Amino acid sequence: MLLKKRMGAQNGKPVMIDIRAEFGEVLKLDDCYLEVYKQQHLVNGKWVEEKEAFYFVEKILSKKKVEKRMKEEETKQKIRECLELVGGSYVAYQRLRRLGITDDEAKLRAGLQDELLFKLSYYLHKLKD
Questions:
Q1: 40-44, 110-114, 115-119: range with lowest mean pLDDT
Q2: Beta strands 40-43 and 32-37: pairing type?
Q3: How far apart are CA 28 and CA 31, in angstroms?
């Protein structure tokens, strides 16, 4: 990829590429993602973006890598949601016990009849406290 080669060849120094001159009117990038930003400077204590129509490309990432990262983040979020539900089941178990329901029946009603799941719920609940 020309952009990546040009960026890497400058040993960390910014490279200016005129996209229109290099590639023509339209540059279609459909197999990668660019992390870009506009230069900013402080004016009266506030960050202000430059008005010029150029951007700095911080990174060029493959579409496959970005999609994998997004899928991993989505999976981690779903795991966190599941763990919250499991931790919340211990609260339900405690309420049932306070109502005088037997230990086995309270575990069953709270969905914690599996001993490993019960322990996990207990420790997740302790983490919240």
A1: 40-44
A2: unpaired
A3: 9
Beta bridge partners of 48: 41
6 and 64 fall within a common domain: yes
The CA distance from 17 to 96, in Å, is: 67
Token pair 């990038």: residue: 29
* Pairwise pLDDT comparison (84 vs 34), residue with the higher score: 84
pLDDT digits (tens, 9 = 90+) for 65-92: 899 999 999 999 999 999 999 999 999 9
Mean pLDDT, to the nearest integer, of 19-36?
Answer: 78
Neighbours of 57 (CB within 10 A): 16
* C-alpha–C-alpha distance, residues 46 and 44, integer Å: 6
Q: What is the C-alpha to C-alpha distance for residues 61 and 31, in angstroms, rounded to an integer?
A: 9
Number of domains in the chain: 2
Q: Are residues 87 and 122 in the same domain?
A: yes
Same domain, 37 and 93: no
